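On clarity, I found the account of how folds are encoded harder to follow than it need be. An entry of this sort, consisting of the sequence and the corresponding backbone structure tokens, reads as follows:
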Amino acid sequence: MRTGRKWRCGMGLIELLVSFAIAAALLAATAVAVDASFRSYAVNAEQAALMQQARIALHRMTSSVRATRAHAPASVSLRAEFASGATVTDTGIAMFDETGAEVVYRWDQSQRCLIAEIEGVSHVLARGVEAFSVRMEPMRSAAALKSGGAWDLLKRAEVLLTIRTDDPAHVAESTGAQTLTLSAAAVPRQNCW
């Protein structure tokens, strides 16, 4: 018969502690991955919302330029230059819609937003706007050509809109706040015939 040590079933204290350490390491790695995915989702959701908002604002502006009349730079100081036939670039554009209401799109640099003003009532079209410019090319109407008058119509407007997302990353990580530039051109329908 054999004599000696008896074998015991089960785990000892050391095995139990090692298994807890392995499980804790796996759970910590999983928690880090889940946290990173939630942060990534938040950053991407913000970027997508800003891009969609900027696209809608750009579409709204170009649609207004196409459908309105009596276009001019929003800055009063550039209006004389525009009427003299020079192509001007401004941070806003003013126009009148079919009801005669003045519509102004302008960039508020301090608030980083694009503002639409209709008859003096303003509302924000897009946030996170880093840069905004409208390049306006004038032309003469048929009546102005006959009389030798001023450049009184808008031939073409080119809009550049740059948005920048906020960077919610912590110091140790960098998602790099992304910049997106959208551009569009519009010709007023009343002036192209």
Observations:
- The chain has a mean pLDDT of 85.
- Residues 13-67 form the longest helix (55 residues).
- Strands lie at 69-73, 88-90, 92-96, 102-108, 113-118, 121-127, 129-139, 153-164, 179-186.
- The first strand starts at residue 69 and ends at 73.
